Amino acid sequence: MGVTMQLKAVSENKLLEMIEGNGDPDGYLFEGGKEALDLGRSWYGLHDLICDGALTGTGPLFNALMGGRPLEHAEELVRSLSAQQTREVAQALKAKSEEELTAGFNPRRMNEEGVYPSADWSAPGELDHLLERYRALRAYYQAAAENGEGMLLYSF
Fold first, then answer.
1. How many domains does the chain have?
2. Does residue 150 form part of some domain?
3. What's the domain range around 108?
4. C-alpha 56: how far from its chain's center?
5. What is the pLDDT of residues 69-87, one digit of tens each?
6. Across residues 33-60, what is the average pLDDT?
7. 9 occurs within a structural domain
8. Using one digit for the tens of pLDDT, what is the confidence trace for 146-156?
């Protein structure tokens, strides 16, 4: 089945409220306003692609999808990145070229490790799909960084 993931940019003030327990992370995730980036189940393959492994990675690239500080007052699994961390992720994603991602794509290892959502990462179109999701992820982080926003990472 697999876990799905959404990201939602958030103002630094709103994020501080949530960290302090004065804001409603669950309500913010589903209320109007900013549109979330829905990665669905592709987030896991995308993390593998940008970090060269399903459960590996450090620094800003790891933070893009698996990092962040858990929000204690959320009903669901919600993690947060500060505006500074969001800028660092945006810079790291911008520096990671599609050529570099393509060269590091290892469908055999991904299949062996059971990275979802694909049953066979060597099938035609799998890399193209991940690169498409990478472009969306990079653009979403870039926009948030330019607006001085933090990020909520929501897994369900």
1. 1
2. no
3. 22-137
4. 14
5. 998 877 778 999 999 999 9
6. 90
7. no
8. 999 999 999 88
